[in-house]
Amino acid sequence: MLNRFMQSRLRGLVILALILIILPAFLGNPFHYELVTQMAIIAATVVGLNLLVGFAGQISLGHAGFFGLGAYFTGIATGTYGWSSIPALVAGAIAVGIIAWVVGRPILRLKGHYLSMATLAVGFIIAIILNNERAITGGPDGMPVPALNLFGWELSTFGQYSLFGVEISGVQAWYILASLVLLLAVWFALNLIESPIGRALRSVKGSEVAASVVGVDTARYKSLVFVISAVYASVMGSLYAHFQGFITPAVASFEFSILLITMVVLGGMGSTFGVILGAVVLKLLPQLLANFQELETVMFGLILMLTMIFMPKGLLPTLTALVAGKVRKKTGGKA
Fold first, then answer.
1. Same domain flag for 213 and 281
2. Could you tell me if 252 and 302 lie in one domain?
3. Which end of the chain has fewer beta carbons closer than 10 Å to its terminal beta carbon, N or C?
4. What share of the chain is helix, strand, coil (3-state, %, to 5)?
5. What does the pLDDT look like over 29-81, one tens digit per residue?
6. Cα distance between the two ends of the chain
């Protein structure tokens, strides 16, 4: 029989897949498809970041730097040197993983505010390099990125494609790809969490001293999850670059790093499906508040502040606890 966690994991994946299948029925135009595709790509990024922050307890305020490196590596490799998209994406992920390992070994020895400042510095350094290396990256003006070449199939937001005999637009094809990638990212994260590596990460978050006493190599596991989360960001950055068709150093900015960590905190640290909800909410809120014009930023901040005051554990864990509490009351505490 499946244990409770595996049942919950399978149920969550099925629900997420059903939502992604049903969602196109409510998308009325290409802009909606572009928005939800961006949501899926960013949601997959924060699923990786949540492994570092939510399960290992290690903060990162410069994670957009790895996202930007993946985007620019792919953009340069495919646009300047004529690489195919998949080799460029894989090579970029490997390169970013190596950089994350080299950088992570020393800075992950730090704790608290010192670790936050170190990761922030890494993000700033990457953003400065992308801004200043005009000959390679185009500088602040950015650079164009070719359409995604997927096993000989060129995927562009402006194209028209036939899928199992059904004609779909480019944005619809991108939505399908992003949805599949998100499901794969969630599946991998859930399996990692339940593996011996995941249990080691949870012990590190609980107490590094206690974890070390029972034989957990805390430095190794912290570096490993730092690399995994960076590779997540790199792969999603590569896909984002192809999807947008144009990138600027904003993809590695401090503001984007803060947005990513806010999605994790808002959705619920340690909740894989919660951080997806956090990503959706923070991508939707600016669209919903656009009519308030100059008050948009104030209301955005107010909503976040009230959410964190009244839902400190995050949106999904709080809502789940409320529903579970009501169920227990109705069943007389037997649920």
1. yes
2. no
3. N
4. 75, 5, 20
5. 899 999 999 999 999 999 999 999 999 989 899 999 999 999 999 999 999 99
6. 20
The structure tokens 């010192």 sit at 114
User: Which pLDDT score, from 0 to 100, does residue 215 have?
Assistant: 84
Which residues touch 49 (CB under 8 Å, ≥6 apart)? 60, 63, 229, 232, 233, 260, 261, 264, 275
pLDDT in tens, 290-329: 777 677 677 777 877 887 788 888 888 888 888 777 666 7
Residues 246 and 324 in one domain: no
Q: What is the pLDDT of residue 71?
A: 97
Reported as a single tens digit per residue, the pLDDT across 248-291 is 999 999 999 999 999 998 998 889 999 999 999 989 888 887 77
Same domain as 282, residue 300? no
Separation of alpha carbons 107 and 231, rounded Å: 18
pTM value is 0.92
What are the structure tokens assigned to 290, written together?
């656009």
Token duo for residue 237: 């950055």
Find the domain containing 175 and state its range: 4-288
Cβ partners under 8 Å of residue 307, min gap 6: 266, 315
Q: Are residue 15 and residue 96 in the same domain, yes or no? A: yes
- In this structure, are 161 and 214 located in the same domain? yes
Tokens 């990256």 -> residue? 137
Instruction: Provide the 3-class DSSP secondary structure of residue 80.
Output: coil
Count up the domains in the chain and report the number. 2
250 shares its domain with 158: yes
CATH code, 20: 1.10.3470
268 and 306 together in one domain? no
